[in-house]
C-alpha cells in the first residue's frame, strides 16, 4: 500500500462539527482493515488534536497520512501559540475558559492523551504564530 493522506479543516469554536475529522479518520482506517488497537490510538490522538484546535486555536488543519510502517497525524494552527509547553503537557493543566469546561471540554488531558497514544510525539509552538503537533503511531511493534 502506498502513502495515503488527507487534510481536514478545523474551525475555531465549531463545536457542532468537533470530532468530524477524527470520525472520518477512524472510518478510513476501518475500511482499510487496520488493527482495532491502532485505530483506537489514532482516533483518540486525532480527536484530542481536533478538540484543541476548536477550543484554543484560531482554526487550523489536521493532516493524516498512512505510510507503510506508520500513521502520522499533524495538527497545525495559526495561533495564538502555547506560552508554556511544559506546563501545557501536565495532566489537568488547562487554559480553557469556564464556558468550555461547562460543555465538558478543557480538562487539561488533550496534550497528555495525544502523547500517550503516540509512539513519537512533538510539539512546536510560537506565541503569536501558532502550534504544530506531530504524532506518529507505528503499525507493527518493533519496526
Automatic annotation (TrEMBL):
GO molecular function, one term: protein serine/threonine kinase activity
Keyword Transferase belongs to the record: yes
Native source organism of the sequence: bioreactor metagenome
Gene3D superfamilies, A to Z: Histidine kinase-like ATPase, C-terminal domain
EC code(s) of this entry: 2.7.11.1
Enzyme class at the top of the EC tree: transferase
The gene coding this protein: spoIIAB_26
Keyword Transferase: yes
InterPro entries attached to this UniProt entry: HATPase_C_sf (IPR036890), HATPase_dom (IPR003594)
A UniProt-annotated Pfam family: HATPase_c_2
TM stretches of this protein: none
Keywords annotated in UniProt: Transferase
Name of the protein: Anti-sigma F factor
Domain Histidine kinase/HSP90-like ATPase residue range list: 16-136
